[in-house]
Amino acid sequence: MKFSWAKFFFVSIAVFILLVFFLGLNKSNIYNTKNLVGQSISAFSLNSINGLDTVNEIKLKKNNFTLINFWASWCKPCRLEHKYLLALKKNNSDLKILGINFKDKKKNALKFLLELKNPYNFVATDKNGKASVIFGVYGIPESILIDKNLIIIKKIVGPITESDYSSILELIK
Q: Is residue 85 part of a domain?
């Protein structure tokens, strides 16, 4: 039997495709950011929603604790968590809240804050979503609690719930 380069080529391609397919099936596609807890946040700089000021990691070092909340006016779950953000701002002088408006129109974001009240000490904007990736954020709402050393204490994927609210209060005591 003669060796055929054509058969060898097609068999090699088929084996490669099957290998990639099976390796892909064994890969976990679960969105997991638990490994970020205990890590330090990266350097960043974001403009305020009005464009008059900036916020960066150096400014956050002045706070005992900062909750970084990624939100948008078009996000329904963001409305659900809003009452907890307002309560956190009202009841905790040790906690500052940085709101990062994610891929939103300025007028819609400002209308959202006017309608539901502003829980944020500073509102920054991430118009294209690139800065959010630095924080390990791929969807909203998401929140990150950091201490004054910029270490991530807690990461919340999805809207803040009553349980998350209680957990945040316990962590910042």
A: yes
How confident is the model over 85-122, as pLDDT tens digits? 999 999 888 899 999 999 999 999 999 999 999 999 99
Q: Count the domains in the chain.
A: 1
Question: How far apart are alpha carbons 69 and 140 in whole angstroms?
Answer: 9
Q: How many residues does the chain have?
A: 173
Euclidean distance between CA atoms 29 and 11, whole angstroms: 29
**H/E element holding 5?**
helix 5-26
Range of the domain at 117: 34-171
**Cβ contacts of 89 within 8 Å, gap of 6 or more:** 95, 97, 119, 120, 121
CATH no. for residue 90?
A: 3.40.30.10
Q: Kindly report the pTM of this predicted structure.
A: 0.80
